[in-house]
Amino acid sequence: MQPDLLSIEELSDPQSYPYALLQLADPSLEMIRQYLQEGTCYVAKLQEEIIGVIVLMPIAPSTIEIKNIAITEAFQQKGFGKQLLHFAERITKQLGNEKLVIGTGNSSIAQLALYQKAGFEIEAIKKNFFLENYHEPIIENGIVCKHLIVLAKYLN
Ligand code: COA
To answer: What is the pLDDT of residues 43-75, one digit of tens each?
Structure first.
C-alpha cells in the first residue's frame, strides 16, 4: 500500500525547531545546534501533525549533506523516510547541485540498508568519528558506534 503523501515545509523560525525529533537522529544537542545555524530545517506533516524532520546543508561546491533525518517512532517503517530522501534529492537538484551526501554510524544497520536501497553508495569512512566527537558512548544493535560511514548519491 502506498503511504500517504507528506507535506513538507521549510521552517524559518528557530523557536519552532523540533528538537525531540532531531535528537532521534543525533543524540548531541551541541552538534544539532551547530548545523542548524548553517543548514535549512524542513518539517514533514501528515494532516497538520509534524511527523518528520530533515536538515540540509551545503558542504562543498555542488554538494548538499543531509545533516539530520528523522521520523516519529509511531510512523517509522511506513515509507515516510524514503519520501524525505526523495524530497532532499528534489531540493538538491532544484538548487543546482549534483551530489547528495549522508553520514551514518557503523552500527546503524537499518539506516545503512535504507540509504543503499535508495541509491546512495559508501564513499568514505571517518574512523573513530563518534568516539572523538560524542561524549556518551552510542550502542545500537549490540554494536559500538565508532565510525562515520559517508554515503553519496550523484543526481543527474
Ligand atoms: N535490513 C534491510 N532493510 C531494512 C532494515 C534492515 N535491518 N531495516 C529497515 N530496512 C528498510 C525497510 O525494509 C525499508 O525499505 P523497503 O521499503 O525497501 O523495504 C526502509 O529500510 C525503511 O524505509 P522507510 O519506512 O521509508 O523509513 P522510515 O520512515 O522508518 O524512516 C528513518 C527511516 C531512519 C528516518 C527512521 O527510522 C528514523 O527516524 N530513525 C531514527 C532516527 C535516525 O536514525 N535517523 C537517521 C540518522 S543517520
So the answer is: 999 999 999 999 999 999 999 999 999 999 999
- Residue in 6, 56, 67, 77 to alter for ligand 1 test, most ligand atoms within 8 A of Cβ: 77
- Our answer on whether the CB atom of 73 is closer than 6 Å to any ligand 1 atom is no
48 with 6: CB under 8 angstroms?
Answer: no
**Whole-prediction pTM:** 0.95
CA distance 60 to 136: 29
Q: Model confidence over 9-31: pLDDT tens digits?
A: 999 898 999 999 999 999 899 99
Instruction: Spell out the long-range contacts of 140-148 with Cβ–Cβ below 8 A and sequence spacing 24 or more.
Output: 140/105, 140/107, 140/108, 140/109, 141/107, 141/109, 143/106, 143/107, 143/109, 144/107, 145/105, 145/106, 145/107, 145/108, 146/105, 146/106, 147/105, 147/106, 148/103, 148/104, 148/105, 148/106
Q: Which residue has the cell 551530489?
A: 99
The candidate with the shortest Cα–Cα distance to 104, out of 59, 53, 66, 55, is 66
Helix axes 80-94, 109-117, angle to 10 degrees: 50
